[in-house]
Each structure stands twice: as C-alpha cells, then as structure tokens.
Amino acid sequence: MAHKSDIEIARAANKQPIQEIGAKLAIPSESLLPYGHDKAKVSADFISSVADRPDGKLILVTAINPTPAGEGKTTTTVGLGDGLNRIGKKAAICIREASLGPCFGMKGGAAGGGYAQVVPMEDMNLHFTGDFHAITSAHNLLSAMIDNHIYWGNALDIDIRRVSWRRVMDMNDRALREIVCSLGGVANGFPREGGFDITVASEVMAILCLSNDLADLEKRLGDIIIGYRRDRSPVYCRDIKADGAMAVLLKDAMQPNLVQTLENNPAFVHGGPFANIAHGCNSVVATKTALKVADYVVTEAGFGADLGAEKFMNIKCRKAGISPDAVVIVATVRAMKMNGGVKKEDLGAEDVEAVQRGCANLGRHIENVKSFGVPAVVAINHFVTDTDAEVEAVKEYVASLGSEAILCKHWADGSAGITDLATRISEIAESGMAQFSTLYPDEMSLFEKIETIAKRIYRADEVLADKKIRDQLRQWEEAGFGHLPVCMAKTQYSFSTDPNLRGAPTGHSVPVREVRLSAGAGFIVVICGQIMTMPGLPRTPSAEAIRLNEEGHIEGLF
Amino acid sequence: MAHKSDIEIARAANKQPIQEIGAKLAIPSESLLPYGHDKAKVSADFISSVADRPDGKLILVTAINPTPAGEGKTTTTVGLGDGLNRIGKKAAICIREASLGPCFGMKGGAAGGGYAQVVPMEDMNLHFTGDFHAITSAHNLLSAMIDNHIYWGNALDIDIRRVSWRRVMDMNDRALREIVCSLGGVANGFPREGGFDITVASEVMAILCLSNDLADLEKRLGDIIIGYRRDRSPVYCRDIKADGAMAVLLKDAMQPNLVQTLENNPAFVHGGPFANIAHGCNSVVATKTALKVADYVVTEAGFGADLGAEKFMNIKCRKAGISPDAVVIVATVRAMKMNGGVKKEDLGAEDVEAVQRGCANLGRHIENVKSFGVPAVVAINHFVTDTDAEVEAVKEYVASLGSEAILCKHWADGSAGITDLATRISEIAESGMAQFSTLYPDEMSLFEKIETIAKRIYRADEVLADKKIRDQLRQWEEAGFGHLPVCMAKTQYSFSTDPNLRGAPTGHSVPVREVRLSAGAGFIVVICGQIMTMPGLPRTPSAEAIRLNEEGHIEGLF
After folding, report:
1. Does the beta-carbon distance from B539 to A171 stay under 8 Å?
2. Which positions bind ATP (chains A, B) (predicted)?
C-alpha cells in the first residue's frame, strides 16, 4: 500500500450520509440533528426514549505513559471499533472533541491515523458542531455576570481579590493569562486581577462531560464556586443567578455528536476536558447513549493509564454508574524502547534488550488496571520498523504477567489488521469476567484518597503536603465535600511527578502543591506540578501556513 | 384574533423542512448544508454555479429615525416578502443575524413581530449556525498572533502602545473594555493596554459582510491595519501572516444561512455588522445569492434612512455593484407623534396635529431616498391604537410630496395585510423607473464626502473638524485610501448629532471627533459622538430569568 498522509486518506474517504450511519444504530433520521451532511447531533428526546434499554459492553482503551514516539491510543480505539464491526458486532466508538486553539500553534491532530481514522477531519479540528463555542459563551456569561454584580453594588459581598472564576477563550493566547480588567474609570467597574484559561480547562467543560442530562447540568452549574467573601465563605454560580442561562446556552452542546470512521462505522465525538485539572474523557451522555444503541462501545481516556484510566474508573465510572468489561492497554515497540532508555533518533535500530527494559512501564499499567477488577489485554500498535524479535519480546513479557499482547496492524490495514484483538476482546467481554470496583470508597477521607492513588497506582512511598493543604482538605470535608473523588494533576510522562523518570519508578514522593475544589464538576483537583491552563503559540505558529488553496481545500492545518 | 406574544406565535409555527424552503428557490438539497431540520447554509459551490444568472429586483426597507415607540422595519421586511409571495411573486428576504451577548442584558429580539416573523426564533437569538463564533475566533486569532509576534522578538517593530487591533467577545462585558494584558512576568509577554469590543463591532464582521467570495475575504483580511510602528507606518494583518488562517476559520461562516418566515417563505439571515462604526447591512453574499435565485429580494438597513439607507447606497451598493429598484420607508403613527413632541406615555390618545408635526421627519427621509434616484413608498405599519384620522394625516402628507403611503397590517394579519404594498412595490420595480446613483463619486476628497453627507442628508450647515483630523484624512489620501467611502458613526435618533433633536432639524453643525481607517472593510469611519463598542449588562440582566422549563423550552429569553 502506497504511503499516504492522514489527511490524504481522510479526504479520500468514501463517507456515507450521516443518516445512514445513524441507521446502523437504529437512530431514526428525525432524531438526528444534522450539521452538514456528515455530522449530526443525537436528539435529547431520542436519548430519553432509550434510557430503559440494557447496556452494551464497554471497552476502555488506555496506554502506557506517553513518549515522543507516540502510542496511537485514538488510532487503536478507532481500529478496534472497526475491527469489532468487521467480525459482526454492532460497535460504536466514543472519543473526545479537539480544541480549536492549539491547532494554530502546532499542526492539528487527526482523530486516529492511517486507515483507522474518524472523519470529517477538518471540521473536527475547526468549529465542528460548535460545542466548545457554546462552552466558551456559557463560561464567559458567568464571568460577565460576576463583574456586573460587583459593579451594581456587590450585594453578595464578593471579595474582588478572591474571584476564582476566570474567563476562557479557545485560543493559545499567553497575553491573556494574567490581566487587570475593569480599568478606565467608574463606568467600567472596579479594577481587579483576572485572566483567561483555554476553553478545555473550563469547569463548564468538565461539568458538561459528567452530567447525565440537562437537569443535572443545570444543578452542577449552580454548584460552581465563583469566589469567596472576606470571611472566606464561598459564593456560588447559583447566587449570581447565571445557572439557568448557562444551561440554555449549553442545551444543544449537551447532545452528543455522531460522525463516522473511514469504514463508515458510527463514532460519537463529544466533549474534551483536560486530562490533568479535569478527568480527560468524552461525555457521560455520549458513552451512555452509545451503550444503549450499540452492543459494543469502545472509548478512551486521556494520557497514560496512571492518569487516564484511573480517572475513568474513579471519576467517570463512579459518577455515571458504568464500568468497563475489558481494558485495552496500547503499547508500541518504539515507546517500549524509549522507556528502556533509547533516544528518539535511535529508534530505527533493533534493540530487543531496550524493549525488555521498557516493558516494566507496561507491566505496571497492566497490574494497575487489573486492580480495578477488570481484565486487560495489550494491543501492540505495529510500526513498520518494528522487528519480529522486538514484538515477540513484548508478547513474552506480557504473557509472563498472565496477560496477553496482540499485534495490531489497523494503522496500515484498517479493520483487517485488528481482527485478532477484536475477537479476543469480544470473548473476554462476553465472558462476564469483569468484577469492577473503584479504588477507594466515597467515605474515605480526601487525603487518604490521594494517598491511595499515590501508593497503589504511582507506587510512591509518601504524599507530601503541608499543613495548609491538609487543613483545606479538612475544611472541605466539614463543608460536605468529603465524599468527592480526587482528580490528580501531574505530569503524564511518568508514574512519578518527575517527567524524566521513565519506566516503573518506586520509592518516590508525591508533593501536593495546591488543591482546588471543582464543586460543580464534583471533584477535588490535586495539583502535583506545574499545570498550564492557557498555552502560548510557538515562534512560528502553524497558523502562518494555514490557508485555503485554489480548490477551496484547507492547507497547512495538518 | 386573540393576542399572542411573538414567541407564542413563533413556537406555534408550522415549519417546513429546510429542504422544501430551498426547493422554492430551486436550490437542490445537496447544496444545502443543514443545521438541524430548519436551518441550512447555501453551499459556496452552488453560489458560484448561479453567478451568471440575471438578478431579480431588489427592494430596500428603511425607516424614519427610530423612536422608543418602535417602527417595525424588520417586521415590514418580513411582511413584504410574504406579501410578494402571496401575490404570486417568487420573493426572498435578506436580514441580519442577531448578536448573542445583548440577549443576556435585555430580552432577545424577535426577527420581525406578530404574524410577520422569521423562525426558528430561539436559535436565531442563540448560537444559530455559529457564524458569530467563527468571527470571534478569527478576530482573536489575529490578536493572539500579534502578541505572539511581539513576544518572540517583534521583528516587525510594532509599537506596543499603538496596537489598534483589540480582542472581541460576543458578550456584554464592561469589565473587558479596558484591560492591561501580558502581566505576570517574562513568560507572558510585554505588558500593554488593550481591551475587548463586542463581536458585531469587529472589522472582521464588516469584512465578511462586504466580501464577494473567499478570495476577496482573504484579501480584505490581509488589508487590516493592526497597529503602527514608532514612525507611524502601518502594520498589516498580512505582515502577521494571519489572513490565511482567518479565512479558513471563516470558510463556513461565509455561506449564507437560509431559514423561513411563518408563512414558509425563504429568508436569508446572514451577517450583522454595527450600523454606526460599520455599515449595518446583511452580507453582500446573501443579497447577491438571493438576487440570483429569487425574482424579488426584500432587504433592510440598520437604524433610520439617514444612517442605514445612506450606507446601504454609498457603501454596500457601491462595493457590491447592486442597487435597489424601490425603497420602502417604514413609519408608524406612534413614531410620528413622538417626532411631533408627544411623550411615550401619551401615545394612546388621538393627536392628528402631532402626527402632522412629526411628518417632517418622514418627509426629509423621502426626499433623501429619492436623491439616490430610487422611487420611495411609505409603509404605515399599523398599530391597534391608530385612528383613521391619524393614518389619513400621514397619507395626505406623503401625497403632498408626490409619494404614496400605504397602510399595512402584516403584524396582525400576515401577508394578507400587506398585499396593497406588495402590489404597488412590484409595479414600481417592474417599471424600471429607478435610476440609481451614489451620493458622491470615489474621486471626491474624504472631507468633501463627509460634507456631502452632512449637508445633503443631515441638512447641516457645516462639518467641524480640527486640523489633526483634516491632516489625518489628507495622509490617508496620500497613502492611497482616498477612494474609500466614508462610514458615519452618529446618533440614530436624529438627523443631527444631538439625539434629542427630533423632527427635521436644520442649521446644525456636525462635529467630527475622530476618524478611523478600516482598511480591510474598505471605509473610513467618521465618529461624530459617543460610540460604545462594548455594552454592559443592566442591574438586573435578563439572564437571571433565562432557564429551561420542564418541557425543555427556553423561558425568559423573550
């Protein structure tokens, strides 16, 4: 097969009208709200109408810690969905939407790669169905109403130094990270410090992705803490009376988007919260809807399994009342080599020993996933330079842990390259062997929850947190937030908080720098490192090369 | 007929699928990009394919100076479109899109009123098809790239005190009017003053509405002046290399939106620039497309005829190479009374003399419109409290000027109430009596253009402008911008620059406070008063009452 770029493959896709994709899941065309001919939202009415149906099987795709070599988690999610359809299962995939802003810095991301992609790729990297714009509007309406409340007399007595609700924009704009607003005199309000985050970092994004329906959404929006009074008592979004209007702005965005894979299988693409300060999964509504209309749902979680799968289990599954029937852990020979100490420029040469050394990282993820009571299979996402001996080394290692690693060639061959994995996953899922449990109960204290994750998932010896942080956690417990799960924000590159510590480190400490209460989303964010919530553009942003060519095609975006 | 609210009437509308609306204009369904079942964009390919067809007749709807009594310009535009269809003409209307932000301050606006409305009303007041979000993104991408350019070494030598390109948000947020950005240290750039306007005030909005096609759009985006160097030489968007990516972001937004009236007639709703610092008309693309597919196109211009019709003729028609075959000037008895000195609370009582006094305002608009060489008809938009004697007074006055005033009851009766006007307008349009010319030629000096409008339209004695402003105009002429039309920004409530001077004042002066070059849009903005480009929210914003009720309907938006 001649080597084509992702965008060339995507543009050559033989797309079916979105009504035909919906029909594969028995979604009638009047229940699809089309956006052009190849995208649609599934109507809220339809979603209510299928609420009582039994759920299909849920497959989570996660990965080893990411390396610059790339793992192909989304590619494998798409490929496995196509593979399950190929072996006769009615399967749908569920993935996240892309953020617009970063596409103008680095080149935009494909949804998948090679012959395992979701289309239309250009739309998905640009405005798509407008969900993120709706989130931006809802977030900033609350911001405007807060300053407006202060302007007109501040009846709620908000301390303008303690307004924690910032503004958002779906753009990489470092100039907006820290600003002073309300300058220019009496007519413009009371000057104060503020700033912007990128839209995917908005708590509204996390809320939209965790809400079960519009009523739940509005309730959670009302629960947002927007700032504090001088006596440190919280002020809620509900006090500002913004929750109703925000829900109205999010009404359409709450309906999941349906698109298709290159093989014309259904793909839900909905929501896209950060995987550090939020939980990093597509929306609960999309996953639950897919489970009602498909026999198999393949979904993914952000970053490696230490962050993504842990949050999927402890936050999303806990809140949504769902659980995976099987988990796929994606690994590549190249990433194993990097974990084994090989530099990126040397990845082309065979190095079985480096692969073996790097497998320690994979091994720990397998153990961790199993600790949730769910069966794990390793997908070796094949790369053309991989040698048989290297692939065999991974297989042997995984077998030694009592699990199985299956070579997958969906990138090059589409569904035909991944039928072995699809078959094995369907056997496992049908066997009913999963016995899911979360890692910690709601009742555990917040600090113990952090310790549990640090020790059982990261294999750290201890969690370091000063008195101020421990006091803060205790205060929240007293205020009734002790039952919330914790959302860890740390580097994705290591089990530890040191991005350079690859492999399977032990004996490290997890220092907690800060804790934040996302009362609307319903979790405590635990920050263990530098977290950037508003990226900047590089010296030569990709935007400089993006343009429409004479055929009206977009150039430079990919 | 029992009195129902606009929203009740709109919700009870018997909408047809948008494909059927398109079929009325022979737009095939594959050329319609649907957004839900009742909205669609007309594809760029289709628009190119009809470029060589002859144009239909163009009818401009304008009005007297607005008063708090309301005139019903959009209502009459919608009604006349329905009326023309009722008498057997293939007619479409072209109106502007609504801005999202202001809906959360005051209640949202209907598109029309009574039984002359465009639907779906809720969508049109919320995200609609995402055009304004795309404009916001394109605008702010340029903003981010400017600060990014400065951050990475400022090779273009931009004076950070002279960055004239601000940021935008589709929100009423006074706290963002004046800010200091790039605070927080080296990683966030060089602190400077900046601020946000509301999206409709963006030059990108004016550009989108004046561009003939995507190539023209990209060229105009490149022409935007983003700021100046210390030597006062301009820096262009093209120098920042943002024009291509901005055009990509606007690719879908450039395609006009098709919706329908309550009587299932086609309505193009596209673009919505300010009517003061911009030209206040729907997009050229929508109007020109409508002229290719309909025999009659009814469109409107912002504010009263002194601002809206003047700009429609001198800016939009000049640039687009179109011209109206007839002009409708909307007046109401109530507005005549207010122009005649009656207070709003006294409008219920008959007062023929006040009507007669107020007619002076109408009379001058009739004269002005005729000075463009186009025939004018007055539409008296009937209100239930109008007495026969009052209506007759308006008719007599208009007849005395050699024109005709026709009573219209479309608000109460839909198309059946406006067949007289529709019939008369079609006679005039078919007669070919229009002999359109702009008010001034391209070659006239910029200051003379201002004087021509001030003297011939506003009937002022003089234009007051200090040396700095005159020098600035001369500099722009030397730099090659002398051929541009001027875009007047003054109060809409009077022919003069004093909003309290109703009727038909003479002998006044027009003081020019400031001039701005919109090099991308292609006009010189002449500011003659306080112009607010970022509104604020009122003490009790309407957002506080907006919510979804138990049926999932939006409450409080209207």
Report:
1. no
2. 67-74
Q: Give the residue ranges of DSSP H helices in A297-433.
A: 308-311, 318-320, 333-339, 352-370, 388-400, 410-413, 419-431
Domains in chain B: ranges and CATH: 6-129+253-431 (3.40.50.300), 132-249 (3.30.1510.10), 446-528 (3.10.410.10)
E strand or H helix that includes residue A121 = helix A121-125
Cβ atoms of residues B57 and B389 within 8 Å: no
- What is the rounded distance in angstroms from the CA atom of residue B234 to the CA atom of residue B249? 25
Q: Which residues contact B405 (CB under 8 A, 6 or more apart)?
A: B331, B377, B378, B379, B380, B394, B395, B397, B398, B399
What is the rounded distance in angstroms from the CA atom of residue A446 to the CA atom of residue A463? 12
Question: Helices then strands (H, E): number in chain A?
Answer: 20, 26
Mean pLDDT score of chain B = 96
Helix H or strand E segment including B163: strand B158-163
Q: Which token pair is B75?
A: 């209502």
Q: What is the pLDDT of residue A108?
A: 75
pLDDT digits (tens, 9 = 90+) for A459-492: 999 999 999 999 999 999 999 999 999 999 999 9
Determine the Cα–Cα distance for residues B355 and B349; give it in Å rounded to an integer: 11
Instruction: Give the residue from B319, B350, B122 showing the smallest Cα distance to B220.
Output: B319
Residues 67-106 in A contacting B (C-alpha not used; CB under 8 Å): 100, 104
Coil, helix or strand at residue A179 = strand
A67 assigned ligand-binding residue: yes
- The pLDDT score that the predictor gives to residue A377 is 98
Contacts of A141 (CB under 8 A, 6+ apart): A242, A245, A246, A249, B104, B171, B543
Q: Which residues of A touch B173 (CB under 8 A)?
A: 140, 143-144, 147
- Residue A85 confidence (pLDDT) above 80: yes
Q: Look at residue B77 and tell me whether its pLDDT is greater than 70.
A: yes
**How many Cβ atoms are within 10 Å of B442's Cβ, its own excluded?**
11
Contact call for residues B175 and A181 (beta carbons, < 8 A): yes
Question: Residue type for A424, please?
Answer: R
Provide the 10 A C-beta neighbour count for residue A102.
Answer: 20
Is A199 annotated as ligand-binding? no
Q: Which of residues 181-220 of B touch A (CB under 8 A)?
A: 181-184, 187-189, 193-194, 214, 218
Nearest to B301, CA basis, from B243, B247, B372: B372
**Alpha-carbon dihedral of residues B518, B520, B522, B524, nearest 10 degrees?**
10
Residue B115 structure tokens: 């039984």
Active-site residue flag, A75? yes
Any B CB within 8 A of A178 CB:
yes
What is the pTM assigned to this prediction?
A: 0.97
